[in-house]
Amino acid sequence: MLHTLMKSPFETNVPLIINMLKKSDDFLALQDGVLIGLKNNIFLKSIIMSSVKLHLIKEDVYARGIEKNISSKFILISYIHFVSLTLKHKKQMTW
Fold this sequence. Notes:
With 95 residues, this protein is α/β, with parallel strands linked by helices. The chain has a single domain, classed as Hypothetical Protein Ychn, Chain: A (3-Layer(aba) Sandwich), CATH 3.40.1260.10. The protein is built from 4 helices and 5 strands, in the order βαβαβαβαβ. A 5-stranded parallel beta sheet has the order 4-3-2-1-5. β3 (53-57), α3 (58-63) and β4 form a beta-alpha-beta unit. The mean pLDDT is 96.
């Protein structure tokens, strides 16, 4: 399943998202959701321990000027790669 986080993690039930993640899932954050990739945020350790592939839309990261503060556990991808993830996963959940 592809889980997409579009809202700030501080406005979302991140513990619920983390509990629903399975190892075969991909997690993608875009828009304000990219804040979950910030180093030293309160959700980072939990999402990393979920063992899913973690992605951030790089255009949204750069638009917010936070590229130097992103955890190395996240892969920065383009919107084109986002389309590839949607094709890979028949089931998707938007948060």
